[in-house]
UniProtKB/TrEMBL annotation:
Domain Dehydrogenase E1 component: 113-418
Pfam families recorded: E1_dh
Protein name in UniProt: 2-oxoisovalerate dehydrogenase subunit alpha
Annotated catalysed reactions: N(6)-[(R)-lipoyl]-L-lysyl-[protein] + 3-methyl-2-oxobutanoate + H(+) = N(6)-[(R)-S(8)-2-methylpropanoyldihydrolipoyl]-L-lysyl-[protein] + CO2
InterPro entries xrefs: Alpha-ketoacid_DH_E1_comp, DH_E1, THDP-binding
Record keywords, A-Z: Metal-binding, Mitochondrion, Oxidoreductase, Potassium, Thiamine pyrophosphate, Transit peptide
EC number assigned by the record: 1.2.4.4
Major location category of this protein: mitochondrion
Cellular compartment(s): Mitochondrion matrix
Length: 465
């Protein structure tokens, strides 16, 4: 039987060609390009040699390291923490005098409404999970600016790998409230056919790869996708330049995949932007229990990657940093960039978590009151004169109504046909799968009162087609 092949349009086009009997036409050129690139790399490395009487090390592992006759162990405490870039302070006042908004008032309002929509949807869906109307949910309270602002600085053709707290990325790029709800309720309109957990969105049309549960798996995938984009540009220089944006939390940076991804991207000069939401807590684990170094930004420097730390509650700082990061990622044929956004997680990690078991409630309430990304952008907009209390009230009421409408419609839709659980692995169903379908059909006939098959499109009959 034949397995379904990946689309040639997929940015992960560098699939395991050596294991396939049929190579796509451009692969020989790709292989030649890679070999040429590797040859240049090795030639440059071999040019590094230690000259007699030199006053510094000239070695591939430590180029231009000065010799010292005094033994000294470096202490992390002697280095100041990396600065955090900010454009607008907590009062909505511009503190970077070189900053000039590059968006119209209408464009800013649209992005602000995206942040509001995510915030309102999160509250409704969290409550819906508590009511038993869906199995799982993750909110992004306090982190709305990071996802919406970064997405606004990317191009629609750029490829995105999210973790699971980037509802704002999807919203900004065109994911509708109905799209969210269809996935959350796993109904027949869900492109994933109900096979994934809630909040594991994906969209081929929006160039966003489907979210997967394991932490950090998306990071080496993003490096590979970026390398594929680089090779595509080598094949056809007329191809529009694209980057990959990979989102993750500081907890994911404790996984081995994080280090592999950064090292691959750095050594292969891949056009990828790593966007870290450092929100202070992995699930039940404060950052101080995760690492002792200077956040995640210091790791980017360690891998030789251009890095910036930004105030994640400052919409404009995040957007400006991402714009520049995209420019850098496309320079000189491509290179990785790391953006660490400092943004406090106001919410529980998920509906499976009670964060007050490992942090004080007063701490969370203080952050809500003192510094909120939605409130900060709103203050800036009000100072500019393009927003006010009446517009705020109207926007919240309209968004809430739209969310509840999409919620109601999606909840009433039927589930995908039961048959779909056996499909899409092979081009045609194998004899084993057909046997399993028959066994399931017999089981349902034997115990008709134990299973509500009426909520699935076609009911049990879909197994006999």
């Amino acid at each position: 039987m034949k397995r379904i092949r990946l689309s040639s349009q997929c940015p992960l086009a560098l699939r395991r060609a050596t294991h396939q009997s049929r190579l796509p036409a451009p692969v020989p050129f790709v292989v030649a390009s890679i070999l040429a690139s590797n040859t240049r790399h090795h030639r440059n490395a071999s040019a590094i040699s230690q000259r007699p009487n030199s006053n510094h090390v000239s070695f591939p592992g430590a180029v231009k390291s000065a010799f010292s006759n005094t033994m000294h162990f470096e202490q992390p405490s002697t280095y100041p923490a990396l600065a955090t870039y900010r454009v607008v302070d907590q009062n909505g006042e511009v503190v970077d005098q070189s900053f000039t908004p590059d968006l119209s008032d209408d464009a800013v309002i649209k992005l602000y409404r995206d942040m509001l929509a995510v915030s309102i949807m999160d509250l409704i869906m969290f409550d819906a999970q508590r009511q038993g109307r869906l199995s799982f949910y993750m909110v992004s309270a306090g982190e709305e600016a990071v996802s919406v602002a970064t997405a606004s600085a990317l191009e629609k053709e750029d490829v995105v790998f999210c973790q699971y707290r980037e509802q704002g990325v999807f919203k900004q790029r065109g994911f509708t409230l109905s799209d969210f709800m269809n996935q959350l309720f796993a109904n027949q309109k869900d492109p994933g056919k109900g096979r994934n957990m809630p909040v594991h969105y994906g969209s081929k049309e929006l160039n966003i790869h489907t979210i997967s549960s394991p932490l950090a798996t998306q990071l080496p995938q993003a490096s590979g996708a970026a390398y594929a984009l680089k090779i595509q540009r080598m094949q056809d220089p007329s191809t529009p330049p694209r980057v990959v944006a990979a989102y993750f939390g500081e907890g994911a940076a404790s996984e081995g995949d994080f280090h592999a991804a950064l090292n691959i991207a750095a050594t292969r000069s891949c056009p990828v932007i790593f966007i870290c939401r450092n929100n202070g807590y992995a699930i039940s684990t404060p950052t101080l229990d995760q690492y002792r170094g200077d956040g995640i930004a210091s790791r980017g420097l360690g891998y030789g990657i251009e890095t910036i730390r930004v105030d994640g509650n400052d919409f404009w700082a995040v957007r400006e940093a991402t714009k520049k990061a995209r420019e850098l990622a496309l320079q000189d044929g491509g290179k990785p960039v790391l953006v660490e956004a400092m943004t406090y997680r106001v919410s529980h990690h998920s509906t499976s978590d009670d964060s007050f078991a490992y942090r004080a409630k007063v701490e969370v309430e203080d952050w809500k009151r003192r510094d909120n990304p939605i409130a900060r952008l709103r203050k800036w907009m009000e100072a500019k004169g393009c927003w006010d209390e009446n517009k705020e009230k109207e926007a919240r009421e309209n968004i809430r109504r739209d969310v509840l409408k999409a919620f109601s419609e999606a909840e009433r839709e039927k589930k995908p046909p039961i048959r779909t659980m056996f499909e899409d692995v092979y081009e045609d169903l194998t004899p084993d799968l057909k046997k399993q379908m028959k066994e399931l059909s017999s089981h349902l006939e034997r115990y008709p009162d134990e299973y509500d098959v009426g909520e699935f499109e076609g009911g049990k009959d879909s197994l006999s087609r």
